[in-house]
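sanity check this chain:
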Amino acid sequence: MCLGIPGRVVRMLEGYGNQLALVDVVGEERRVNIGMLDDDVHLGPGDWIVIHMGFAMEKVDEAGAEKAMAGLELMGRARTADAGQK
């Protein structure tokens, strides 16, 4: 597994060569390019991916997504956007 941010696919987006997905990342929806995934990887709503620099790097299961988030938390990255803000 690479170091990245886990996100859950909300839906696939039309256009762009079918290489964009709308992904929920800790409660925020983001457009993610899935073009770097292997051709045999199929994504749909509810699937988890690990994202790096706006690109899906790998498809993971929920346990893998939790592991990626735990790694970010070890480095001091808060789970929610407003956590740790005063």
